[in-house]
Amino acid sequence: MNKFVDDIQVLVDNADALYLTGEFEKAANTYYEAAELAISFQLQYLSKVSLYLAAAKSYIDINDIRGDECLEKAVDVCTTDGKIDKAIEICFDIGHKLLVEFEDQVRAEKLFIKGDELRLQRERPHSCVLTEFEEKDFYGDLKKAFEFRQKFQVTETLSDGTTTTHECNSSDNCLALCRICVSARTGLDKFLKDGTEEREPLLYRTKTATQKE
Asked: Which superkingdom is the protein from (predicted)?
């Protein structure tokens, strides 16, 4: 098994290097090959999913329709392994990115519908953590923003004993994403990113300047 894992890691390293040099199609093909090997070697579901998603992202970057197949396979892996909430998360998370970053409403809506269908078919309840992001509700209070962000996440223990954190709650009170709260979460993420990179240094510089005066 270790040799198989090493073989997959070599492919992933090669794919990462190709992606960084802008060779997106070659990177996507290599990620996809690694994902297929992970399937044949029966690695834990998150490894398989992450590889299919990496392939999908690379294909999407060059507007290659094969990205849709990779997304479908990632969702199928989740549902086969009983990780329905993770499958729903992928549908709404990637769907939102397609809509916002690539302005691809058709493909985004296809994923949104898939997520809605999974939630309905598997009877997964949902309650939005946040339906609309308003910066004024959090401005100057990064702690409050972090606390809200954590409500979107849950830590799951995998079969091999490792843990992973993602956007879904596998309990009966599932807080997985939907087409409404995924947009609010994106706004919250941007606020936190801006806050940690810009606001805190700015506040520090302002305070220091005041002290010098």
From this structure: Eukaryota
pLDDT in tens, the chain (213 residues): 577 788 999 999 999 999 999 999 999 999 999 999 999 988 888 889 999 999 999 999 999 999 999 999 999 999 998 888 889 989 999 999 999 998 999 999 999 999 999 999 988 878 888 889 998 898 888 899 888 888 877 665 656 666 655 554 433 334 468 888 899 888 888 888 887 765 444 443 333 333 333
CATH of domain 1-82: 1.25.40
Long-range contacts from 198-202, C-beta under 8 angstroms, 24+ separation: 199/142, 200/142
Domain residue ranges of the chain, discontinuous segments joined by +: 1-82
Report the 10 Å Cβ neighbour count for 96. 19
Q: What share of the chain is helix, strand, coil (3-state, %, to 5)?
A: 70, 5, 25
Q: Which helix (H) or strand (E) holds 155?
A: strand 154-157
Q: What's the number of CA atoms in the CB half-sphere (13 Å) around residue 64?
A: 18
What are phi and psi for residue 43, nearest 5 degrees? -70, 165
